[in-house]
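lol forgot to send this yesterday, sorry. struct tokens for the thing we talked abt
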């Protein structure tokens, strides 16, 4: 009988050991993963709520007008715009269009998916799918900064310039609006600006 009792105890201990191993290495990590996923979802919800709390207001079909450093008028429009408590002078925009009207009757037209506008300085930043159409030339890239306060226009990241004379590829194009000079560069010294002329 003691032999039978000892076998039963051994079987119970083996089963208990298997249950502990399965629980430790399979069930516990699953519960922990579910708990972690729930925590991440709650954190995302809280972050979204905080972002919405920081948002002052939202607008649709907005239009801003002003003048650049050379006293040329501009018009800036967006389908959607938001302002936030921590930056009340910065307008965050979607589906952005901008027109600069120059004294020589030329117009520079800019479009982008996203943008920001500083209501105090008139500085602008255009992001994602940026296109600039000016004087029968097309300039595309990822980012464009129109810095009225610095009299500069800077396009950077994946810049492509096209006109009837050819194409040019660069990382950065810097235009000084007062001196009317252009500096074209790459991010690293060992890369060269790529240009193709059409004859």
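and heres what i got for the seq, position by position
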């Amino acid at each position: 009988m003691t032999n039978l009792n000892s076998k039963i105890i051994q079987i119970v201990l083996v089963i208990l050991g298997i249950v502990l191993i399965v629980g430790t290495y399979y069930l516990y990590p699953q519960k922990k993963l579910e708990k972690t996923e729930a925590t991440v979802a709650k954190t995302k919800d809280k972050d979204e709520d905080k972002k919405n709390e920081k948002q002052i207001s939202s607008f649709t079909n907005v239009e801003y007008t002003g003048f650049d450093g050379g006293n040329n008028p501009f018009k800036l429009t967006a389908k959607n715009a938001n302002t936030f408590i921590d930056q009340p002078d910065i307008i965050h925009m979607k589906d952005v269009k901008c027109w600069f009207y120059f004294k020589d009757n030329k117009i520079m037209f800019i479009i982008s998916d996203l943008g920001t506008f500083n209501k105090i300085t008139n500085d602008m930043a255009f992001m994602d799918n940026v296109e600039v159409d000016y004087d029968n030339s097309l300039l595309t890239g990822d980012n464009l900064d129109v810095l009225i306060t610095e009299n500069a226009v800077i396009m950077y990241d994946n810049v492509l310039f096209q006109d009837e004379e050819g194409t040019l590829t660069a990382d950065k194009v810097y235009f000084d609006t007062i001196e009317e000079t252009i500096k074209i560069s790459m991010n690293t010294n060992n890369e060269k600006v790529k240009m193709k002329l059409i004859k």
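The chain has a mean pLDDT of 78. anyway ping me if u want another try
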